[in-house]
User: Fold these one by one.
Assistant:
Number 1:
Amino acid sequence: MIAGGFGAGKTTAVGAVSEITPLSTEEYLTEASTDVDSLAGIEAKTTTTVAFDFGRLSLPDAPTPLELFLFGTPGQDRFVDLWYDLSRGAVGAIVLVDTRRLESSFTPVGFFEDIHLPFVVAVNQFDGAYRYHPEQVRTALELPTSVPVVTCDARDPNHVAGVLLTLVDHAVNNAAISRDGHAPYTTLQDA
Ligand SMILES: Nc1nc2c(ncn2[C@@H]2O[C@H](COP(=O)(O)OP(=O)(O)OP(=O)(O)O)[C@@H](O)[C@H]2O)c(=O)[nH]1
Ligand SMILES: [Mg+2]
């Protein structure tokens, strides 16, 4: 799963790295969301994801060759029911973070902690945004040392692939049982 707050760069990340034309469910932002979905720092944004993004990435050079199916979530908290559906059977999650709007990261971080799905935090370094050290972001989000925190540019395929490899490595090394009792990465272990 590629998760994170509204406008953190999830659709951008899936589109950057997918080797198929991504399925996207973008709809135009309207005046109705002006007061609830802040565009501070992302004023050029005109659409938002209303269901999910889907893409695919093969990693033939990974220690075990992998084919990852990428599901980008909608960012707003009001879509949390959909996050539950998308997380079923997932290997793990990337939480993309925009440090200018850090508060929108708490809900996705708490969500993956609650369902015990391995996740990594990737700070999406927007142009002009202050460059915080990953350890400062860890402290601000109250993350344990076991959760990897990395930086990336969500527009760069190599960066996003690198974060996915970090996630796969983290998921393999952190066996966890999801809240519904299924091992979330059975497929990965089988591979
Ligand atoms: N400068 C810069 N802009 C980015 C980066 N990633 C995304 N953007 C821009 O930021 C805006 C938001 O990107 P999206 O990919 O739509 O974000 P999202 O997280 O999918 O948004 P929602 O689905 O609405 O929650 C777009 O205008 C992107 O072009 C980045 O790494 N650097
Ligand atoms: Mg999106």
Number 2:
Amino acid sequence: MRMNRTLGVLAASAALSLAAPAFAATNFFTNFDSINFGSGPGFTTRESYEGWTAGRNGLEVQYNNVAGAAFSGANLVELDTSANSSMSRMIDPGTYVLRYWYSNRPGVPASSNGISVLLNESPIFTTPGGNGGASTNWVLQTVNFAVTAPTTLTFSAIGTSDSVGGYLDSISLSAVPEPASWVMMILGFGMLGVALRRQRQAKLRVTYA
Ligand SMILES: [Ca+2]
Ligand SMILES: [Ca+2]
């Protein structure tokens, strides 16, 4: 009985260390495929989509190869609607890895294809663009950053504002545990392991007494 209570406390502390601030941070995955827009090619301009809020020029979702194939599923986002456009969402404090797939729009020069990542409207990363070829050319981009207060994460078109621009697909934000949280977590699980072993030994003693 006493062991069970100890075990319970240790399990709770291990769970608490899992729920430490790093784990309360924002995690999301978005691939723009939540809506099936039908079988034919086309595009739609929306004010919000999959947790993203569009800037003043809306958010263009392309589907079914209207101007190049998506990285995942049928849909992708192009960040240049009728003019350079953007999409934003709020994230909580944390240490993060941002991963996203980028492609030039086919046939569009590098000078019109750029996309920047911004935190509270300050650029932290610019996707290396390039001249668009005959088809989409998806390249994984990885950006590491940390924020200590609620922050607006934005993807924004840069370069020539001309209704054609860079593509985005399959974006994920993953919180990275702080070193202190790792130590807490390892300690927590270590203690849990010791308690489990003790409990097992206690049971053995009871069985064979
Ligand atoms: Ca997709
Ligand atoms: Ca453009």
